[in-house]
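Before the break, one more example. Copy the sequence into your notebook; we will annotate it together after we see the structure.
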Amino acid sequence: MTTPNTFPVLRSERLVLREMRAEDLERLCAYLGDFEVSKSLSSQPHPFLEADGRDYIEQALANNTAENVTWAIELDGQYCGGFKAKELQGAASVGYWLGREHWGKGLMSEALCVVLAYLFEDRGLFVVRTGVFKDNPASLRVLSKLGFKITGEAKHVCRAQNNVELDEIQLQVTRNDFLQLIRSDENS
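Here is what the structure looks like once it is written out:
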Protein backbone atom coordinates (compact mmCIF):
# COMPACT_ATOMS: atom_id res chain seq x y z
CA MET A 1 0.00 0.00 0.00
CA THR A 2 1.35 3.38 -0.96
CA THR A 3 0.47 6.67 0.60
CA PRO A 4 0.29 9.91 -1.39
CA ASN A 5 3.85 10.67 -0.21
CA THR A 6 5.56 7.43 -1.28
CA PHE A 7 6.26 6.58 -4.90
CA PRO A 8 3.60 4.18 -6.21
CA VAL A 9 5.29 1.37 -8.15
CA LEU A 10 2.64 -0.34 -10.30
CA ARG A 11 2.82 -3.73 -12.01
CA SER A 12 0.84 -5.32 -14.78
CA GLU A 13 1.26 -8.58 -16.63
CA ARG A 14 4.21 -7.32 -18.70
CA LEU A 15 5.09 -3.90 -17.31
CA VAL A 16 6.52 -2.18 -14.27
CA LEU A 17 5.65 1.49 -13.79
CA ARG A 18 8.37 2.87 -11.56
CA GLU A 19 10.19 6.04 -10.62
CA MET A 20 12.44 7.62 -13.26
CA ARG A 21 16.19 6.91 -12.99
CA ALA A 22 19.26 8.72 -14.31
CA GLU A 23 20.08 5.66 -16.43
CA ASP A 24 16.80 6.17 -18.35
CA LEU A 25 18.31 9.27 -20.01
CA GLU A 26 19.69 7.63 -23.16
CA ARG A 27 16.48 5.81 -24.11
CA LEU A 28 14.33 8.78 -23.04
CA CYS A 29 16.25 11.04 -25.43
CA ALA A 30 16.19 8.49 -28.25
CA TYR A 31 12.43 7.92 -27.95
CA LEU A 32 11.37 11.55 -27.49
CA GLY A 33 13.90 12.59 -30.13
CA ASP A 34 11.78 10.65 -32.63
CA PHE A 35 9.40 13.17 -34.21
CA GLU A 36 6.79 10.42 -34.73
CA VAL A 37 6.58 10.19 -30.92
CA SER A 38 6.94 13.85 -29.95
CA LYS A 39 4.47 15.19 -32.55
CA SER A 40 1.59 13.73 -30.52
CA LEU A 41 2.71 15.27 -27.22
CA SER A 42 1.86 18.81 -26.17
CA SER A 43 4.80 19.64 -23.91
CA GLN A 44 7.89 17.96 -25.38
CA PRO A 45 10.14 19.88 -27.79
CA HIS A 46 11.61 18.67 -31.05
CA PRO A 47 14.45 18.19 -31.34
CA PHE A 48 14.58 16.64 -27.87
CA LEU A 49 18.10 17.16 -26.56
CA GLU A 50 20.04 15.58 -23.70
CA ALA A 51 19.44 18.74 -21.60
CA ASP A 52 15.69 18.27 -22.18
CA GLY A 53 16.02 14.67 -21.00
CA ARG A 54 17.86 15.70 -17.86
CA ASP A 55 15.16 18.31 -17.14
CA TYR A 56 12.43 15.68 -17.72
CA ILE A 57 14.02 13.28 -15.22
CA GLU A 58 14.77 16.04 -12.71
CA GLN A 59 11.17 17.29 -12.81
CA ALA A 60 9.82 13.73 -12.51
CA LEU A 61 11.93 13.07 -9.43
CA ALA A 62 11.00 16.43 -7.86
CA ASN A 63 7.26 15.75 -8.09
CA ASN A 64 5.25 15.74 -4.89
CA THR A 65 3.47 12.42 -5.45
CA ALA A 66 0.42 13.69 -3.59
CA GLU A 67 -0.10 16.04 -6.54
CA ASN A 68 1.76 14.64 -9.61
CA VAL A 69 3.28 11.26 -10.45
CA THR A 70 5.58 10.61 -13.42
CA TRP A 71 6.22 6.94 -14.06
CA ALA A 72 8.88 5.30 -16.20
CA ILE A 73 7.31 2.43 -18.11
CA GLU A 74 9.57 -0.61 -18.09
CA LEU A 75 9.25 -3.74 -20.25
CA ASP A 76 11.61 -6.68 -19.68
CA GLY A 77 13.82 -4.49 -17.49
CA GLN A 78 14.16 -1.79 -20.17
CA TYR A 79 12.74 1.74 -20.16
CA CYS A 80 10.18 2.06 -22.97
CA GLY A 81 8.00 5.12 -22.25
CA GLY A 82 6.49 7.55 -19.82
CA PHE A 83 3.21 8.12 -18.02
CA LYS A 84 2.12 11.13 -15.98
CA ALA A 85 -0.84 11.68 -13.69
CA LYS A 86 -1.18 15.27 -12.53
CA GLU A 87 -3.37 17.53 -10.43
CA LEU A 88 -4.33 14.57 -8.26
CA GLN A 89 -5.89 16.86 -5.65
CA GLY A 90 -8.22 18.49 -8.18
CA ALA A 91 -9.07 17.99 -11.85
CA ALA A 92 -6.84 14.94 -12.35
CA SER A 93 -5.50 14.23 -15.81
CA VAL A 94 -3.17 11.73 -17.46
CA GLY A 95 -0.74 11.76 -20.36
CA TYR A 96 1.50 9.06 -21.77
CA TRP A 97 3.78 7.95 -24.57
CA LEU A 98 5.79 4.93 -25.74
CA GLY A 99 8.90 4.61 -27.89
CA ARG A 100 7.86 3.80 -31.45
CA GLU A 101 9.31 0.26 -31.38
CA HIS A 102 6.75 -0.55 -28.65
CA TRP A 103 3.65 0.66 -30.51
CA GLY A 104 0.86 -1.71 -31.48
CA LYS A 105 1.55 -4.32 -28.78
CA GLY A 106 -1.18 -3.39 -26.29
CA LEU A 107 1.35 -2.01 -23.81
CA MET A 108 -0.29 1.37 -23.33
CA SER A 109 -3.71 -0.19 -22.71
CA GLU A 110 -2.05 -2.33 -20.04
CA ALA A 111 -0.27 0.66 -18.46
CA LEU A 112 -3.38 2.86 -18.55
CA CYS A 113 -5.46 0.15 -16.91
CA VAL A 114 -3.12 -0.21 -13.92
CA VAL A 115 -2.79 3.57 -13.54
CA LEU A 116 -6.57 4.05 -13.59
CA ALA A 117 -7.03 1.24 -11.06
CA TYR A 118 -4.50 2.97 -8.81
CA LEU A 119 -6.06 6.42 -9.23
CA PHE A 120 -9.63 5.24 -8.64
CA GLU A 121 -9.07 2.54 -6.02
CA ASP A 122 -5.99 3.70 -4.07
CA ARG A 123 -6.24 7.46 -4.50
CA GLY A 124 -10.04 7.64 -4.40
CA LEU A 125 -10.46 9.84 -7.47
CA PHE A 126 -13.88 10.08 -9.13
CA VAL A 127 -12.92 11.27 -12.62
CA VAL A 128 -9.77 11.33 -14.77
CA ARG A 129 -9.42 13.55 -17.82
CA THR A 130 -7.10 13.64 -20.81
CA GLY A 131 -6.78 15.10 -24.27
CA VAL A 132 -5.54 13.61 -27.52
CA PHE A 133 -4.69 15.36 -30.77
CA LYS A 134 -7.21 14.51 -33.51
CA ASP A 135 -4.47 13.04 -35.69
CA ASN A 136 -3.67 10.35 -33.08
CA PRO A 137 -6.35 7.67 -33.61
CA ALA A 138 -4.29 4.95 -31.88
CA SER A 139 -4.34 6.84 -28.57
CA LEU A 140 -8.04 7.54 -28.99
CA ARG A 141 -8.66 3.76 -29.38
CA VAL A 142 -6.66 3.02 -26.20
CA LEU A 143 -8.72 5.56 -24.24
CA SER A 144 -12.07 4.40 -25.63
CA LYS A 145 -11.23 0.78 -24.82
CA LEU A 146 -10.80 1.76 -21.15
CA GLY A 147 -14.05 3.68 -20.86
CA PHE A 148 -13.05 7.25 -21.71
CA LYS A 149 -15.82 9.26 -23.32
CA ILE A 150 -15.46 12.38 -25.43
CA THR A 151 -16.48 15.53 -23.57
CA GLY A 152 -15.52 18.15 -26.13
CA GLU A 153 -12.87 19.64 -28.35
CA ALA A 154 -10.30 22.35 -27.86
CA LYS A 155 -7.13 23.76 -29.36
CA HIS A 156 -3.85 22.83 -27.72
CA VAL A 157 -0.28 23.87 -28.51
CA CYS A 158 2.22 21.23 -29.61
CA ARG A 159 5.81 22.26 -28.85
CA ALA A 160 7.30 19.63 -31.17
CA GLN A 161 5.35 21.09 -34.09
CA ASN A 162 6.67 24.66 -33.70
CA ASN A 163 4.05 25.57 -31.06
CA VAL A 164 1.23 25.29 -33.57
CA GLU A 165 -2.29 24.96 -32.14
CA LEU A 166 -3.79 21.57 -32.97
CA ASP A 167 -7.32 20.25 -32.61
CA GLU A 168 -7.58 18.18 -29.45
CA ILE A 169 -10.31 15.78 -28.42
CA GLN A 170 -11.02 16.02 -24.69
CA LEU A 171 -12.10 12.90 -22.82
CA GLN A 172 -12.82 11.66 -19.33
CA VAL A 173 -13.62 8.45 -17.53
CA THR A 174 -15.47 8.19 -14.24
CA ARG A 175 -14.60 5.84 -11.44
CA ASN A 176 -17.94 4.04 -11.79
CA ASP A 177 -17.61 3.56 -15.55
CA PHE A 178 -14.04 2.25 -15.27
CA LEU A 179 -14.76 -0.14 -12.39
CA GLN A 180 -17.89 -1.43 -14.14
CA LEU A 181 -15.85 -2.03 -17.33
CA ILE A 182 -13.13 -3.89 -15.41
CA ARG A 183 -15.68 -6.04 -13.58
CA SER A 184 -17.46 -6.95 -16.81
CA ASP A 185 -14.08 -7.89 -18.39
CA GLU A 186 -13.26 -10.10 -15.38
CA ASN A 187 -16.62 -11.87 -15.67
CA SER A 188 -16.44 -12.54 -19.41
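The radius of gyration is 16 Å. Helices lie at 25-32, 35-38, 50-62, 107-122, 137-145, 175-187. Try to locate both features in your own notes.
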